[in-house]
Amino acid sequence: MTDDTRPARSAPGAGPLLRLVVLFGGVSAEHDVSCVTAAHVVAAADRSKYDIVPVGITRDGGWFRQDKAIAALADDVELPNALLPEGTEVDPIVILRGDSSKQTVVLPLLHGPHGEDGTVQGMLELLKLPYVGSGVLGSAVCMDKAMAKDVAAYRGIPQCRWIEFRDGVDDSREIVGKVEAQLGLPVFVKPANMGSSVGITKAHNIKELDDAINLALRYDDVLVIEESVTAREIEVAVLGNALPEVSLPGEIRPGSEFYDYEDKYVTGAAQLVIPADLSAADTDAVRELAVRAYTAMRCSGLARVDFFFEESRLDGEPARGWLLNEINTIPGFTPASMYPKMWGASGLSYPDLIDQLVALALETYQRRSGFSTAH
Ligand SMILES: Nc1ncnc2c1ncn2[C@@H]1O[C@H](COP(=O)(O)OP(=O)(O)O)[C@@H](O)[C@H]1O
Ligand SMILES: [Mg+2]
């Protein structure tokens, strides 16, 4: 995208042209992460371009306009490290729509179920509001690890071996035999619909497999069971709509046995290496694969596309190189998160990134509003 597609500054004294509703918090396990992200985004967004309205959603689903943050912005006072979903309780539809004197754009900074999975996006579609990020389908496909794997498989995007397990459909007595025959231990057991490593276990034996399945079934009735790959974890940031741009790749070096919730948000022991140490050919290959996956899954606006890079194998089989792990349609977005950092390393600053996301939201909205509904 070129600079001239970015949201314009308003004339001096006229006030910002756009109303930017920043949704944060939410009912998922990733609530706290979202509150931290919101503080950073609200602080960094350009106040000459946006009338910023932070709206927090509590863990039980109440919506609150964050008046303290709005006052702090007006008084130019520093914001806390995390915004809390508190202030004036508001009706979701009323606060989203605003008073129609200004164009609203919604920035859903909500991770996981009821935020990143197409539900909020569906509400915004019904309200005819532009919003940052993927639409209903792209969000829903990427949130469901089993469905995303089916799409990737159909499009020939390489990934690790896996088995889908559906509670009430697949026979739990057969699963052990299937895992042993098709994957071998250890395996990763994951609820299809979660994020931030919640509900995920690496199972090293049959007893752990059984426990892992029971744990994952607390979060979803569809699970994926994957072979455990020995590989580097490389991520790529994608930004754009039909012809997206791709950042330099970054590498995660987990601080524990795998990149679990503690490692992501509590201990912070994982190392982030940006740009990842890769050959030019490997870098080109992963960037190209990232766009293929992004396009196949109907992503728009932004996504972080996560890969495993298998360079060698203990069993003597040929290494498979790039394997898609997953796509995050609302990736971690604090200035210390991979997504903004990969763009930083690629020459795009955090405030500029916010501008680009808003411009992409408006572009998608305008394009889709132009479609005929007549027959
Ligand atoms: N098949 C696998 N082989 C090896 N490590 C894995 C595998 N699947 C997941 N992991 C590890 O677990 C972490 C979390 O899994 P992931 O599928 O990315 O879940 P989430 O959506 O919660 O981020 C990964 O970053 C990686 O460290
Ligand atoms: Mg992940």
Structural commentary:
The chain has 3 domains: 3-132, 3-Layer(aba) Sandwich (Rossmann fold), CATH 3.40.50.20; 134-159 and 229-329, ATP-grasp fold, B domain (D-amino Acid Aminotransferase, Chain A, domain 1), CATH 3.30.470.20; 161-227, Dna Ligase, domain 1. With 375 residues, it is of the alpha+beta class. The chain contains 12 helices and 15 strands. The chain is globular. α1 (31-44) links the parallel β1 and β2 (50-57). Bound molecules: adenosine-5'-diphosphate (ADP) and magnesium ion. Adenosine-5'-diphosphate (ADP) binds at residues 160, 188, 190, 194-197, 200, 226, 228-229, 233, 254, 258-259, 306, 325-326.
Supply database-style keywords:
375 residues, alpha+beta, Rossmann fold, D-amino Acid Aminotransferase, Chain A, domain 1, Dna Ligase, domain 1, six-stranded antiparallel beta sheet, 22% strand, globular, binds adenosine-5'-diphosphate, binds magnesium ion
Heteromolecules bound: adenosine-5'-diphosphate, magnesium ion
Provide the β-strand percentage band.
Answer: 15-25%
> Helix count?
12
Total number of domains: 3
Structural class: alpha+beta
Rg from Cα? 21 Å
Instruction: Choose one word for the global shape.
Output: globular
Largest pleated sheet: 6 strands, antiparallel
Cα distance spanning the termini: 34 Å
Give the SSE order as H and E letters. Answer: EHEEHEHEHHHEHEEHEEEEHEHEEHH
Which stretches are low in confidence, meaning pLDDT under 50 for 5 or more residues running?
none
Q: Can you give the mean pLDDT? A: 92
CATH architecture of the largest domain: 3-Layer(aba) Sandwich
Helix content: 25-40%
> Which fold does the CATH topology of the largest domain refer to?
Rossmann fold
How many E strands?
15
